[in-house]
């Protein structure tokens, strides 16, 4: 019986990887009635999809993303996409992330870790990774006064809207509330930076030199996209990496002593537990692969998480191995026109937070195996940790 045909989200939520392996081996281009789309699972095919937007467009008529947040750049192609992307880009370039945001990330991570000194047991996700990623995102965006609780609620509301295939009115109401709240705060920020430009993403969008400048609503829409797609992923990745380093003390010591090893561990984290599991696309034209024909208008998911565990590309793909030769070939940030704009910010978050945490707390260890959930977005729900509660390392005792 075909593997994909009756597959639903529920079958993938707890652990999609066994299904992905079976798809790669037996049905690399598979139609799923349950999901209403094609599933593409092998590495080379996901690369092909990503590199051919003329066949597999990111634009979708009446997409759930547009209904939830407005016309986000990730659902546009061609000139419309270039206009939005070029306006957001500047503050998120590698050099600017290092110059403008890195020191603030280190001090925020150190401050959060310091607060945990008196708390011998804590949840890495809710007590550290989520507040850290929320503030990193909001400060870079240009909404520094927003609380972590607001970011959590907005991001959940938008993600629920993105997955609202059942058209649940309660989900639309919650997403609508988040959409309005973000819109109001962004409009205030737009007015502020119009008179006094700064280094934030909102300021970059306001002052972008475009033939057709962005409206306040277009700016708010791209900020909503950042909230739905730039918050969960860094905290998932951060929690995964800290957990893996606790599991492998030798690797932890190596990573803390050598920044190149830390960079390698960050890349391996992205591959091993890919935070954005799949990229949605739509067929712009008919396309035939072997004896399978995909029709114009069909929806498709390029399964990046599956591609990143494809043993046709990565040797022993289920192992967490920072010395693998194909380390940086992973597809966690995509690779086509929609290549993640937040890669440097995300990587810098991990580069600053991991040493801050381990260097601040002695005897840091995981106290129970984390539960991993999700497939479109996947990561640890919570990671319970303990430390020796001797106070902050290096502080007067
Ligand atoms: C570990 C962290 C992250 C991961 C794994 C990740 C992953 C991705 C992926 C896979 C895409 C492309 C999806 C597609 O092709 O359909 C994407 C796009 C995007 N990401 Fe990220 N992301 C991360 C962090 C961030 C952060 C921190 C920001 C905010 C600054 C951000 C902003 C964006 C934006 C604006 C796009 C759309 C780019 C475009 O359409 O041209 N991401 N991300």
What attributes does this structure have?
12 strands, 16 helices, 3-stranded antiparallel beta sheet, single chain, iron ion binding, Cytochrome, about 400 residues, Cytochrome p450, binds protoporphyrin IX containing FE, heme, alpha+beta, 5-stranded mixed beta sheet, heme binding
Low-confidence stretches: none
CATH fold topology:
Cytochrome p450
**Overall form:** globular
The CATH superfamily label reads: Cytochrome P450
> In which range does the helix fraction lie?
40-55%
The secondary-structure element order is HHEEHEHHHEHHHHHHHHEEEEHHEEEE
Question: What percent strand?
Answer: 5-15%
Which distinct ligands sit in these coordinates?
protoporphyrin IX containing FE
Radius of gyration: 21 Å
By secondary-structure content and strand pairing, the structural class works out as: alpha+beta
Please summarize the sheet with the most strands: 5 strands, mixed
Number of domains: 1
Name the CATH architecture. Orthogonal Bundle
| Number of helices, where a helix is a run of at least 4 consecutive DSSP H or I residues | 16
Overall pLDDT metric:
94
**Annotation, overall tally of beta strands:** 12
Distance between the termini: 65 Å
Strand order of the largest sheet: 1-2-8-5-3
What's the level 1 CATH class?
Mainly Alpha
Keywords: Heme, Iron, Metal-binding, Monooxygenase, Oxidoreductase
InterPro entries: Cyt_P450 (IPR001128), Cyt_P450_B (IPR002397), Cyt_P450_CS (IPR017972), Cyt_P450_sf (IPR036396)
Family: Belongs to the cytochrome P450 family.
Protein name: Cytochrome
């Amino acid at each position: 019986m075909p593997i994909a045909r009756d597959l639903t989200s529920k079958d993938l939520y707890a652990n999609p990887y066994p299904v992905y392996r079976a798809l790669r081996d037996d049905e690399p281009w598979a139609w799923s009635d349950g999901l209403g789309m094609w599933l593409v699972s092998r590495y080379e095919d996901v690369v092909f999809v990503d590199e051919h937007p003329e066949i597999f467009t990111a634009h979708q008529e009446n997409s759930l993303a547009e209904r939830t947040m407005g016309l986000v750049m990730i659902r546009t192609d061609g000139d419309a996409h270039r206009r939005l992307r070029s306006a957001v880009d500047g503050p998120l370039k590698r050099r600017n992330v290092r110059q403008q945001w890195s020191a603030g990330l280190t001090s925020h991570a150190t401050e959060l870790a310091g607060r945990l000194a008196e708390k011998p047991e804590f949840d890495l996700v809710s007590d550290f990774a989520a507040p850290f990623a929320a503030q990193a995102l909001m400060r870079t965006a240009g909404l520094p006064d927003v609380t972590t609780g607001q970011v959590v609620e907005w991001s959940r509301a938008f993600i629920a809207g993105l997955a609202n295939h059942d058209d649940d009115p309660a989900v639309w109401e919650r997403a609508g509330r988040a959409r309005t709240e973000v819109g109001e705060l962004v409009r205030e920020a737009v007015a502020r930076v119009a008179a006094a430009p700064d280094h934030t993403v909102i300021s970059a969008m306001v002052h972008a030199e475009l033939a057709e400048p962005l409206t306040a609503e277009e700016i708010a829409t791209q900020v909503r996209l950042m909230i739905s797609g730039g918050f969960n992923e860094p905290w998932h990745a951060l929690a995964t990496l800290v957990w893996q380093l606790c599991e492998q003390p030798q690797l932890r010591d190596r990573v803390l002593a050598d920044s190149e090893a830390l960079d390698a561990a960050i890349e391996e984290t992205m591959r091993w537990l890919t935070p954005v599991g799949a990229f949605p696309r739509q067929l712009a034209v008919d396309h035939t692969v072997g004896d399978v024909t995909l029709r114009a208008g069909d929806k498709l998911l390029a399964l990046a998480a599956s591609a990143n565990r494809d043993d046709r590309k990565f040797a022993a793909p289920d192992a967490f191995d920072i010395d693998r030769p194909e380390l940086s070939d992973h597809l966690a940030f995509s690779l086509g026109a929609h290549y993640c704009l937040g890669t440097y910010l995300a990587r810098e978050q991990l580069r600053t937070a991991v040493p801050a945490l381990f260097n601040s707390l002695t005897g840091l260890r995981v106290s129970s195996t984390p539960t991993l959930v999700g497939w479109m977005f996947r990561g640890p729900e919570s990671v319970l940790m303990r430390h020796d509660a001797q106070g902050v390392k290096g502080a007067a005792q």
